[in-house]
């Protein structure tokens, strides 16, 4: 009788453990992102999260068989929310030593260029002096850290949101601003400023990483595993869908050409493991 009770208890314990694991595995994950960074992330006309990163995380959820809940908030809050564990995953941000003290980073999603934008008149005259003009930045972004380190004498104007920054651009209150290249191009096009403002110089290119709270290290492996499982064709389709703009002028055609080049680079990076395998196979055949 005693042996039977022990076996029954062990069976009950194992059943509870399995059920608990199943419930935990099926629990939805909250991915936080900014609603004002098209084409990466924004709110569409239906009031829903949309954009390149949104599509990637939806696909990631399918691969992981996990429900994804998107939490839209200011850029600064996306970081603090992830640090505090209020959001499970930050959709994607640049790595820095400062951020690494508070967050754990997964494998990178894709590289992103940041550019200094200026009025076309200043670009044509080549009269841009970073010590003369104030440079607009969004609060909480990596740009402030970069400018402060590389151009310490530049006066910075910090805005709470991208919307506030572009309102200042429209009103002529700032002449220069630093922003992720696709986001800057998209916003200028959207606000009808593409013919008066342009990219003066690309200042840096860094990888975009998902991140989680330091209290949740086990989630990193799950993120990496399922991100790698997203089919190559799906990645290509998603990037092509979002990194494109209308070509109604020569300026727009130039932008489209640059973005098309960026798409090609991203595809090579996403498919890097397969390329390495193919190259090794060819090498082995010639060596045989």
Structure, described:
There is one protein chain. Helix 6 (142-150) links the parallel strand 9 and strand 10. Residues 14-24 and 246-253 have low confidence and may be disordered. The strands form two sheets. Strands 1, 5, 6, 7, 8, 9, 10, 11 and 12 form a nine-stranded mixed sheet that branches. The protein has helices at residues 2-26, 52-64, 75-83, 97-100, 120-125, 142-150, 162-170, 181-190, 218-228, 232-242, 250-270, 272-287; strands spanning 29-33, 36-37, 41-43, 49-50, 68-72, 89-94, 103-105, 110-119, 135-138, 156-159, 176-180, 197-213. The protein is built from twelve helices and twelve strands. Helix content is 50%, strand content 23%. The protein has 288 residues and is an alpha/beta fold. The protein has two domains: 2-111 and 207-278, 3-Layer(aba) Sandwich (D-Maltodextrin-Binding Protein, domain 2), CATH 3.40.190; 113-205, Periplasmic binding protein-like II (D-Maltodextrin-Binding Protein, domain 2). The longest helix is centred in the first third of the chain and has 25 residues, at 2-26. Helix 2 packs across helix 9, helix 2 (52-64) runs antiparallel to helix 10 and helix 10 packs antiparallel against helix 11 (250-270). It starts with a helix and ends with a helix.
């Amino acid at each position: 009788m005693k042996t039977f009770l022990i076996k029954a208890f062990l069976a009950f314990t194992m059943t509870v453990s399995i059920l608990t694991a199943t419930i935990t595995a099926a629990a939805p994950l909250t991915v936080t992102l900014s609603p004002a960074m098209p084409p990466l992330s924004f709110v569409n006309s239906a009031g829903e999260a949309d954009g390149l990163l949104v599509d990637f995380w939806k696909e990631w959820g399918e691969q992981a068989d996990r429900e994804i809940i998107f939490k839209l908030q200011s850029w600064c809050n996306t970081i603090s929310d992830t640090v505090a564990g209020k959001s499970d995953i930050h959709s994607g941000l640049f790595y820095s030593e400062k951020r690494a003290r508070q967050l754990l980073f997964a494998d990178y999603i894709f590289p992103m260029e940041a550019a200094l934008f200026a009025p076309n008149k200043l670009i044509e005259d080549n009269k841009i002096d970073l010590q003369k003009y104030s440079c607009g930045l969004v609060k909480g972004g990596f740009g402030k850290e970069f400018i402060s380190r590389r151009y310490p004498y530049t006066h910075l104007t910090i805005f709470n949101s991208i919307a506030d920054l572009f309102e200042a651009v429209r009103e002529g209150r700032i002449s220069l601003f630093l922003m992720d290249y696709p986001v800057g191009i998209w916003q200028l096009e959207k606000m009808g400023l593409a013919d008066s403002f342009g990219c003066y110089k690309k200042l840096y290119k860094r990888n975009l990483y998902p991140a989680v709270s330091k209290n949740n290290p086990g989630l990193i492996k799950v993120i990496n595993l399922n991100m790698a499982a997203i089919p190559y064709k799906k990645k290509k389709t998603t990037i092509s869908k979002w990194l494109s703009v209308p070509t109604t002028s020569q300026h727009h055609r130039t932008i489209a050409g640059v973005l098309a080049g960026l798409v090609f680079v991203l595809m090579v990076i996403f498919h890097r493991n397969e390329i390495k395998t193919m190259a090794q196979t060819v090498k082995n055949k010639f060596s045989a």
